[in-house]
Amino acid sequence: MSNTESSREPVRTEARPQPPDERRMTAWVGKALLIHGKIVSSENLTIDGRVEGTIELGDHSLTIGAGASIKADLVAQTIIISGAVAGNVRASVKVDLQATGSVNGDIVAPLLVMADGALITGKVDATGRKRSST
């Protein structure tokens, strides 16, 4: 046996548990789903289906896809709307209304970004705070 042969050791690969195969980094409601009720999430959420009720994400982002139909009040840190929303929208950071997006309700956010073609039927409070009654 030569030195080169004896110094070769088999390469060892440890079998480590692999995380589940994730296709996405956020929660997702697909096009084929209709949800009635309250959605509360502790991670970012994308909705491409239909939701009727309320959606609360706290310090996370909510994305409403172009084909989505939402009849709900929305509360999140950042809300991107490309679909149709019937309900009030409250964001602690920003609402981004895309060209295909529409909101039939009031919007409260410190920043509103609105593309050409987007529609709002309701009031907009860009201060992000509740107004006093005085």
Mean pLDDT: 84
Low-confidence stretches: 18-24
Number of helices: 1
Biggest beta-sheet profile: 13 strands, parallel
Rg to the nearest angstrom?
Answer: 23 Å
Indicate the structural class.
mainly beta
Strand content: over 45%
Shape: globular
Rounded to the nearest angstrom, the distance between the terminal CA atoms is 95 Å
Number of strands: 13
The domain count comes to 1
Name the helix and strand elements from N-terminus to C-terminus, one letter apiece.
HEEEEEEEEEEEEE
Approximate helicity band: under 10%
Which key phrases capture this entry?
13-stranded parallel sheet, globular
SSE layout and pairing:
Blueprint: H1 3-7, E1 27-29, E2 34-40, E3 45-47, E4 50-56, E5 61-64, E6 69-81, E7 84-86, E8 89-97, E9 102-104, E10 107-108, E11 112-114, E12 119-121, E13 124-125
Parallel strand pairs: 1-3, 2-4, 3-5, 4-6, 5-6, 6-7, 6-8, 7-9, 8-10, 8-11, 9-12, 10-13
Description of the structure:
- It contains 1 helix and 13 strands, in the order αβββββββββββββ.
- By secondary structure, the chain is mainly beta.
- The protein has one domain (26-125).
- Strands 1, 2, 3, 4, 5, 6, 7, 8, 9, 10, 11, 12 and 13 form a 13-stranded parallel β-sheet that branches.
- 24% of the residues are buried.
State the gist of this model:
The chain is mainly beta.
